[in-house]
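Lab notebook, bench 4. The sequencing result for the construct came back, and we need a structural model before the next group meeting so we can plan mutations. Quick request posted to the team channel:

Model the 3D structure of this chain.
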Amino acid sequence: MSEEGATRFVSDEGRDDTVTPFAVEPLDVRGRLARLGPSIDTIIRRHGYPDAVSRLIGEAAALTTLLATALKFAGRFQLQARTDGAVDLLVVDFDAPDRIRAFARFDAARVAAGDTLLGKGQFGLTVDPGGDMARYQGVVAMHGQSLEAAAHEYFHQSEQIPTVIRLAVAEAVIGGVAQWRAGGLLAQFLPEAPERRQADQHPGDAPAGVEIAAPREDEVWTEARALASTVEDHELVDPTLSGERLLYRLFHERGVKVFSPQPVVEQCRCSSERIEAMLKNFSPQERRDMIGDDGKISVTCEFCSTTRVYEPSQFSGDATP
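Done. Here's the predicted structure in C-alpha cell form:
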C-alpha cells in the first residue's frame, strides 16, 4: 500500500465517522470508503426507528457520505427518495465538508407488516453550491429496487461513469453496548485517455428495427469491478477492521494509494434563529393556528427531533387568543 507515492505499512487503526479516498492507478480507479459509527447511531436512536427503517437510513447516510465528500466547494448535497412504499420519504442532507443529518417518514403499520420499504417513485440527488451558482439535480425512477441499485442506475443514466457501490448496515455490540454502524465503498473508472471512457448511451433516434450494440466494457474496468465487488457486508461495518486494511485486502495485487481520511459529524443545521425567521414568514392568522393548548407555538425539527417553543407575542402584530 502506498500514500502520496511512498510505500508504508498498512495501518490497523480503525477510524469511525470518516471517509477515506483511495486510488488504484494501474486500473484507473478512484474511490472512497465510508465508515459511520457514532454519527449514524445517534441519528437512528434519536428517532427510535424500527430495525428495517434503521437499516435503510444507514444505507442512505453511507451513500450520501460517499457522494457528498467529493464536493470541492462548501455547498450542500441532498439525497431524497419519495415512493409509495412503507417509507414514503427519505432525506439525507450533507453540508460540505463534513456535516450530515437524516430522517425517514414511514407508515409504522406497513413496516411492521413487512411491506416493501421503497416502492415506486423517485430517487434524486441534489447539489446546491450556494451563492449565484446554479443548483444541479439528477433523478431516476424508483420501482422497488434498493438504494444501492438506484445509485447504480443513476450513474449509468445521468453520469455515465462506470461505478460500483456497496452499502452495508449492522447493529454491533461494542464494549457491551449495541451500536448501529454503516459502511460503503464507491469505486469509479476514470481513465485519462478519452478513447477508454464509457461511450454515450443510445440516443433513442435510430431507425426502427436497428439494434445498437452496447459498448464493450474495458477489460481493466472489468477487473476493477470484480475486485471491488468481492467486499463483504461484514467487512464494511467491522469496527475491528481498519479502512486501510480493507482496501489492501481488495486491491493489494494492483497496489492501492490511500489518502488522509475526512471526518464526518452528525449535526443539524436547525437553530432557534432559523425557525423564528421561518415563523415570521407566516401570516398572523397562520401563526395563530399553530398555537397549542399551552398558548405557545411549538416547532419540532424532523431531522434532530429538537422541539423549540415560542411565545406568540414574540411576533409583532400577533395577539394571543
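The radius of gyration is 23 Å.
Will bring this to the meeting.
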